[in-house]
Amino acid sequence: MNNKLKSKAITNIAIGIAAVIGGGLIIFQFSTLVPMPGMKFILMAPYLSMMFYILQMRLISQYSILQIGGLLGCIMSIINIFMGISIILTSLFSMIVTMPFQNKKTRAAIGSIAFSGFSAITGLTVSKVFIGGIYDEVTIVWMMISFSISLILGGLGAFAANKMTKYFGKLINN
To answer: What is the pTM of this model?
Structure first.
């Protein structure tokens, strides 16, 4: 029975990460039309939040956000090491925020919203510290604005995911 649960979790994580990467590529292409640092994080926030909410609801582990984000970060490190570092830090911060919550639905909602917000601030911080260039001009104020907008949009994404999972109950109840 335990091996069946592990196989199911691995399959869910793999499919979810593939969906995050595929959808992320499309959103990333649109974000290049708006030449502002951090715009890709803001535009990705609702989608990331939806995907992370659904994945967390499908997985049993309390550490699901760290599992999902850690694997996503490792995969994305192949493309860009700084992106991988940012995703892993985002996952760690999001897991820390969700630790006090025992209710799975609450933990999934807060974790997915936190992931969206932290992706903006960690992404901009890692870019500013390690990459420089245009990111040197990013201020703390803009980081906080990006964080706030990403949290709000992440909240909308989590709300939409909650409604979708209620409507399409099979997404969760397998």
So the answer is: 0.88
